[in-house]
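RECORD TYPE: inverse folding
INPUT: structure tokens
STRUCTURE:
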């Protein structure tokens, strides 16, 4: 780890989609994202590591019921909540995560604990046993809104979407990407899944396709998980940076490919130079960032503004 300090950078997201209505509207989402940005960036100014800042940001987003991760996660087809989270330390190029874990408050904390394990990616029963080993308190992440969504869907045998609410929830993921003052990168992503999925379906959030970081770049993705997996989006962007493209060029090339393939997704990115970038094929990307001077967001981008950068 270098002792020479640089200006830390931060970008996070609360999902993607076509509307902010199911999240409480523009003002509420902006206030939520900006307050979390400020709290995490204050930690970075106190020399918090990239990993610690990512975990803190993910915890705060998981604790915010308006987002589909942790508290407020959507229900699967059988009425159960199963969450997934991935964490990658770019300085060590170490990935860890949990898949389809239930009855915990912050899945990202489990991903953090797995960073030091020989087996770093656990699913359902294995993740549950790991929780018991760690004495993680049992927690019910269900909210009344998510329960009512599921009940309404069940009335029609899951064949008619409830005014688009579930469709929007399916694109609900949270993610945090950080460059700390020592030049280290990290990324974390967490989700409740896409809602109403078959039991056992696996999200991109706990895969390098949706969450990836090296010492050169870091990316967290959101959107339709299967689309992100098909594009292997996060790893693709990072590898293109490693191959010599600027972060902006890597994002632009990858997002254009995704648009050509009719994918529905978004990505937030940072590189080792401090460049911030984002891209989307969805109409809306619920992202906010701190560029070292000011807080900004992507909430009012038009559908045609599919990439952006801050240096």
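DESIGNED SEQUENCE:
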């Amino acid at each position: 780890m270098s002792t020479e300090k640089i200006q830390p950078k931060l970008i996070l997201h609360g999902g993607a989609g076509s509307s902010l209505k199911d999240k409480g509207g523009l003002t509420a989402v902006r206030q939520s994202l900006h307050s979390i940005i400020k709290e995490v960036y204050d930690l970075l100014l106190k020399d918090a590591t990239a990993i610690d800042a990512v975990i803190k940001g993910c915890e705060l987003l998981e604790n915010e019921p308006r987002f589909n991760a942790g508290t407020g996660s959507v229900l699967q087809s059988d009425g159960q909540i199963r969450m997934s989270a991935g964490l990658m330390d770019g300085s060590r190029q170490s990935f860890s995560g949990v898949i389809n874990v239930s009855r915990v408050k912050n899945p990202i904390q489990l991903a953090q604990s797995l960073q030091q394990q020989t087996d770093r990616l656990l699913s359902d029963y294995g993740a549950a046993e790991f929780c018991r080993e760690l004495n993680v308190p049992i927690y019910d992440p269900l909210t009344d809104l998510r329960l009512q969504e599921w009940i309404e869907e069940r009335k029609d045998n899951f064949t008619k979407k409830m005014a688009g609410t579930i469709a929007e929830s399916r694109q609900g993921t949270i993610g945090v990407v950080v460059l700390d003052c020592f030049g280290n990168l990290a990324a974390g992503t967490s989700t409740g899944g896409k809602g109403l999925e078959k039991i056992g379906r696996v999200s991109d959030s706990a895969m390098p396709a949706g969450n990836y970081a090296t010492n050169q770049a870091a990316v967290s993705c959101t959107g339709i998980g299967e689309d992100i997996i098909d594009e292997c989006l996060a790893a693709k962007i990072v590898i293109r940076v490693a191959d010599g493209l600027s972060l902006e060029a890597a994002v632009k090339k990858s997002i254009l490919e995704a648009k050509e393939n009719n994918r529905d997704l978004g990505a937030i990115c940072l590189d080792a130079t401090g460049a911030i970038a984002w891209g989307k094929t969805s109409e809306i990307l619920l992202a906010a960032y701190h560029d070292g001077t000011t807080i900004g967001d992507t909430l009012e981008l038009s559908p045609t503004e599919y990439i952006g950068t801050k240096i």
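NOTES: Residues 162-169 have pLDDT under 50 and may be disordered.
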